[in-house]
Amino acid sequence: MRRNVAVFLLLIVLTGCGNLLIPTTEQPDDQFLNFVVMGDNRPANVFRPEQPYIYHKAVTEAVALNPVLILNTGDLVLGYDALSQEKATEEFDNFEEATAPIREKDIPLYITMGNHAGYTKFARQAYNNRYKHKNTGRLYYSFDVKNSHFIILCSELEGEESQITGKQMEWLKMDLKGVKNKHIFVLLHRPLYPKIKHLKNSMNKYPEKRDKLASLFKKYNVDMVFVGHVHVYNFSVVAGLSQVIAGGSGAPLAGTINAGGFNHFFHVIINGDDIDYRLLPLQNEVLLAAQLISEGRIQGAISLAEKAMEILPGHPMPNIVATVGYKLAQQPMEYDAGITALKSILKSEEEVYFRLGEFCLDVNLLDLADLFLSKALDMANNSFKILYHYGKLKMAENQYAIALEMYKKTLLLTNDDYFKRDIEKQIKILEEKIK
Fold first, then answer.
1. Which of these CATH numbers, 3.40.50.1820, 3.40.50.720, 3.30.465.10, 3.60.21.10, describes 13-281?
2. Which one of 46, 182, 188, 230 is at 20 to 30 Å from 327 when CA atoms are compared?
């Protein structure tokens, strides 16, 4: 019988990571293995299309651990805005650019499909072209490394979302049946047992099928099921089955810090029969700086943003937060330098002022949001995203007539069903307020 040493470290989240050494008898090389689990690194929204700052940091720190392989729990891209093959390709290209340090070290990266890659036919096709198994052409497969067996499942097969069924289930049964004397790790996107969010659209959407899957895992002594979908860390044992939600590599976090709502990834170290699961929280300087900005703690925000700029100089978000901080702190030279840096990064003056305005609106700095969005609007008075955010701003300022005018203009500028529904809803609310 296996003897597992499971160590879940909730380290001090705001001060970075630490190490815990587990005394264990040294094993032959074929009994020693380490790997990383991360995922749900997608951008926050269509207005911040680049891979998040914290994903770049997660990649750098993960590579420094020299893992034998890396598992990704899915949701690499936004997906729902991939309304053309060109846009879908661009989004996955952006993911690969951020993932380059892993590729450059020749560390095998195994990815399970997330629901965001299935939102449009273009995103699904782009994902399939890049990440399906080269030999089988499937999105589910398995492989062995030393004393461990890894199973990559797909909870997003077209027409079979939120379930493992049909041919995939039959394949899984045969695969597990053939595993002898190895640790078994399973990777899929949607949790069997979700927490905090996605409580009705995870694997429990079909409870009988979920329970059959769980019973199969328990029958073959699966060591751990790694999942994502919910942007938190969570460890649970349900009727003897262990599950880790590792969804904290970049997408907007869910829940409080105490509920697992912090950026993180996992480092798993296997030494013979012992398995050491190390939860490694990530300090997100950009997120913390934004929080400090909203609290009026400007110098602290500037310090954190400047630290993030040193870590990742070319990423727009640290520069945006710092530039807003300089404006609030009345540091004109630094502010001008920030604008210049952002023009170099974003390649467009209009985009610079839009992104500054979008951020200020997000942290409720309405006066500054008005300043920046007005500048952007002067440069592009027919831009959907600028008009849309200007409408949101005027609604927040209770200037309902102007907000209504902006929303009516934006409605003519988009074919996106999500935005159309949202704008039509806001128009109805504003018309009632103006009556």
1. 3.60.21.10
2. 46
